[in-house]
Amino acid sequence: MRTATQQLFSKCYGKYAIGAYNVFNAEQVHGIMRGAGNAGLPVLLQITPVARNYMSDKVLRSIIDAASHLYPETDYAIHLDHGNPEHCKDAIQSGGYDSVMIDASHESFMKNIAITSEIVKMAHDNNMAVEAELGVLSGMEDDMTVNDDQARFTQPDQVAEFVEKTRCDSLAIAIGTSHGAYKFKGDQSLRLDILEKIQKMIPQFPFVLHGASAVPYNEIRRINEYGGKLDEDARGVRLFELQAAIASGVCKVNIATDMRLIWARLHREFFKNSPELFDPIIPGKKYMDELEKFVSQKCLSLLAKNIKHETI
Ligand SMILES: [Zn+2]
Description:
By secondary structure, this protein is of the alpha/beta class. Helices cover 46% and strands 16% of the residues. The chain has helices spanning 5-9, 26-39, 49-70, 85-94, 109-125, 156-166, 192-201, 217-225, 239-247, 257-273, 281-301, and strands at 18-22, 43-47, 76-83, 99-102, 129-134, 138-141, 144-146, 170-173, 178-179, 207-209, 250-255. Helix 6 (156-166) packs across helix 7 and helix 10 (257-273) packs antiparallel against helix 11 (281-301).
């Protein structure tokens, strides 16, 4: 059932994180809704500006709406991911979203506050929630590219002022993750020390972790075995780190890369192993089934350390 984003957030702080999955097509919507329903946990379906251009915003939202009737047990909300002010205004006015992310993190601190505040006011007037971002993630996602030297961690001493002035409902923080498959080099990992400092500044406030895919080595290896050329050093966020972050207030975890890897691996293997086939329905069905399994397992794994699924 479609549920307000803030209502979904209200139950999870310190216990579990809601998986937020980027959708581009109908197969993903089916797989995600089924998987979350099987896990008995809520889910966010995210639409990026690139997805809006690719599939059309209205078509994507209609697919989600239609699918929700097939999977009434799945609690979900529709979220705009990485919107600029124009995307946010359009999404708010459409009435088809439950929350938006305004991404003004590349602007100065004061300009980020000004842009975010304006969107928050408009969204709250329409009973919608706003995710803002403070700090800049590196990496590549859709049409966004941020180099390592432009990336910066969220400054703990800025968060209280930012949240108080903007009145945003959740905050995406930069603590070491990045977009895309190449998140960490060497021994780099999540900066949980920064997260703990941020949490002390604004306790009980929900944080969002972008770029939180696991990027399993096995997927990379299988893609390369079937003709892919991905860097085998690609590495994502390890589960125990994610679970520590969830215990420190991360309530929403964004997943995009892992679903793309599944898509690439499945189609490469399928067409190589079945060269006589050309019907998109066959691999399409396999993709839905694999996503269902992936999302179900992912939802069940996004628990704070020491929390058991039965207790949430
Ligand atoms: Zn992101």
